[in-house]
Protein 1
Amino acid sequence: MKKKTLSSILTCVAVGAVGFSLMGASNPIEKLVKEKTGADVKIVKQVPLNQLKDMQVVILESGNQRVPFLADKNGTTLIGADSSFLTSNDNLLLTLQKTVQETDAYNNRSKSDKLLATIKQKNYPVVTLKSPAKTNKTLYIVSDPNCPYCQDELGRVEGHLRDKNVKMIVVGLLSEDSLYKASDLYSQIKTAQTNQAKINILRKIYSGNYQASGSQPSRDALGIAEAVRDSGITSVPYKFEVTE
């Protein structure tokens, strides 16, 4: 059977429960997923639900991705638990919301960790803007020059700098023209020494009427685009905050 990603498993089970008898299995939930989808998963957390008799919340992990489920105590039924889950029981809803938030935070962190590790290993450039405040917080923004939402986000950069440093990972993700613009940016920004000089270059290249000058994307622009895709980041702007 062809293996599926954990997100596709969630799609399969979110529309209804799947049942399977696994008498005597040491890990019935893991075996259930394996039997029904072909995917190898492990349980990283189980939370009994006092509000639902014989039910529990479980978090399953496959690779670097985690997804929450509702499961019966015997591990014979899994139901996808996501932000669309509705109940009149406030305590149950809070438990589920916290679990979804926990898995979302983990999944986002694994993407950002992988991206930063690749950038440091390959010594790819980032646009570093220093806050005037004394802070160890850094906001990373993965951004494409041709993305209108990224252009809007660039307009908020001075506000971010009031209390945190900003590092922009400019990526040619949306089109070939984006790769050319990212190449231009990394070439032009090498000599910029101040925040304002760097922001001026960013705004010039992010403007709708900027025409990229290169005929071949740079090694850095191509490498950063590959690193972003490999990390699992699929949309921009993508923001995450770290302490460094």
Protein 2
Amino acid sequence: MLRVLIADDEPLARRALRRLLEPHADVDCIGEADSLARTIDLVVRERPDLVLLDIEMNDGDGFKLFAAIPSPPRVIFVTAFAEYAVDAFEVEAVDYLLKPVAQARFDAALERARRLVPLPDRDGGMIELRAPARIVRARPADILAVRAEGDFSHVHFADQSPLMILRSIGQFEAELPAPPFLRLGRSIIVNCDRVRGLETRSRDETRLLLQGLAEPIGLGRAAAARLKQALAARRG
């Protein structure tokens, strides 16, 4: 789950950014700041992964965030002023968006942020996966999903073919940390930190999009409802 803070002194601008975030199920908007001072306070207390940051605010410019905090989070600048673009990239901003921001342009910037923000290693250890011809050691945080097939399970990782492992899905459920892992039914466990979105195809079919997985995973009605409920609870 990508934890995002919105920082802009204009209520309409904050509302617009909220709407741009809505399609992204893997994003948790942890709060809003209407001033630079409030932004600094929330960054220190809440430690967001990403800040959507205005530049010209009522009590100072957004660049002062970098001077106020030794290790600031990743930042996407969202501003009405084009002249600060060079300064933004000097502080290694993820992106620089000009208002009003189109959804497609925002989505591209957010995807860039996902690649730059490391997922937390919640488990801290490794698990051993016995494939037919080899043994693989993996961090739980790197697993996207586990799908059952008889006594075997297919373990999905980003940007590679799934591994067939001689272990039941029940054994995976007992070993993987929850959260972020959630069993959605008899045949699938999902890493909720890796959920990129859900596409409703029909009343009985929803497609699950995971970061790093090219092909969506089909979910039935009950599994999709359980996942939506879990993601909503995580957002608070």
